[in-house]
Amino acid sequence: MAVHDSTPDNDAAEVPLDDVINISSDLFSQGQLFVESMFRPWNFYQLLIALGVFVAAHILRAVLGPRIRAWMGSRDNWPKWRMRILVVVHQRLRAIFFVVLIWAVIYAMREYTWNSRSYLLSIIGTLAFAWLAIVFGTRLIKSPLLRKMVRYGAWTWATLQILGLLEEAERLLDSVGFAIGDIRFSLLLLVQGLVILGVLIALARFFTTTTASRIKSNEDISPSMQVLIVKGVQIAFYGAAFFLGVRALGIDLTGLAVLSGAIGVGLGFGLQKVVSNLVSGVIILLDKSIKPGDVISLGDTFGWINSLGARYVSVVTRDGREYLIPNEDLITGQVVNWSHSNDFVRLDIHFGTAYHDNPHEVRKIAIAAAQSVDRVLKTRPTVCHIVGFGDSSVDYILRFWIKDPTGGLTNIRGNVFLALWDAFAEKGISIPFPQREVKLLEGGPENLARNVGPASA
């Protein structure tokens, strides 16, 4: 147990220091004896044999590595998981060859000579096999940072265990610490906490990812509810991992209740915006006002929702920009959801024709031109109305429907305008534009003033 009850003592500050000095001296003595033993004849020969095995493994990798890679390249029809395993194996060919060769040498030496003459090789072979097994085992962890932490921690533990120095290392780490009340904190407690929490968080991540993939594959659950359930599962698993990890270390959480309450109140005042965004995110998921895939407009931002986060909503626009909009803005501001209840969107375009063109024919031609565009729906009526008689033209409005707003709005309007241009050009319909006549009066300023009149007129 890494947590101990502390008792008042006048020499409380000196005892841990004495323990550190004694344990350090013991480790130094053992290390000195180990170094001296390396220069004994048969130990030195075993080191040379291990070095020769490493050189042989390096040569084998240089010779067989390219051939194995070429053989892997010819297996295009294999599934991805099998190719990933082959890639990992190819990256560790030298270590694999070293483990195979050194254990072959160990078995041969045990068969033809005394076991004591292969003792050092056995330690080296065991270390190499343990390190290689840890490398392959930690490949299952997807997070690079967590994978490195687990790998290096497992390497350290395996090395100390194989060399028989684990108990001394634990004593050394446990001797460095301090006490707060009835709880004693030490480096050993810190290391154990990191290991236990790392394992539990890795398990929580695995179960969370598996559960999330199954929830997202269920078509009976709406996208917003899928996000809400996944967030709840993540909070539950990671919270349970932290709680179990702290309890496994023997720390009583009831003593931290008052402190955690004070910290919670302080965070509530200092992080009001963060808390507001978190609550707003839960409200958005519950009321299903927006969901992944919806097309929304918020101010000058127009795009579709890529993902719903705990603090923000990711909106991707047509130009590839990704806006991270706080959840509070979506709750308090006016949001246009183009696909809230359905995906149908009506678009309007304005145009004008000359007065000598028959408006009945213009309306028919405009409707037919709009319906000739691919994205314009044929199942919903396209209409064209006269909206006024302008100075130079008869003004019309053309209304049509689409079902894929994520494909863009400006481009479909442009395609309909092009279709109108082609149809009007084919039918002889003219599109007027304002014209002005400018007359230049002959004579000087007197004639100009007389013709134009006073400025106040």
How many structural domains are formed by the residues?
4
Overall 3D geometry?
A: elongated
Helix content: 55-70%
Low-confidence stretches: 1-15
Q: Report the end-to-end length measured between terminal Cα atoms.
A: 104 Å
* Strand element count: 10
- Write down the overall mean pLDDT: 77
Radius of gyration: 39 Å
> Which series of helices and strands comes N to C?
HHHHHHHEEHHHHEEEEHEEHEEHH
For this entry, give a set of tags.
457 residues, disordered N terminus, five-stranded antiparallel sheet, SH3 type barrels, 4 domains, alpha+beta, three-stranded antiparallel sheet, 10 strands
Description:
59% of the residues lie in helices and 13% in strands. It starts with 14 loop residues before the first helix and ends in a 5-residue tail after the last helix. A hairpin with a 4-residue loop joins β5 (312-317) and β6. It has helices spanning 15-38, 41-73, 80-91, 93-112, 119-138, 144-163, 166-175, 187-216, 223-248, 257-270, 272-287, 327-332, 359-371, 410-427, 445-452, and strands at 177-180, 183-186, 295-298, 301-308, 312-317, 322-326, 336-337, 345-353, 383-389, 394-402. Mean pLDDT is 77; it is low at 1-15. The chain has 15 helices and ten strands. By secondary structure, it is α+β, with helices and mostly antiparallel strands. The chain has four domains: 15-173, no CATH class; 203-275, no CATH class; 276-337, Roll (SH3 type barrels); 345-427, Alpha-Beta Plaits.
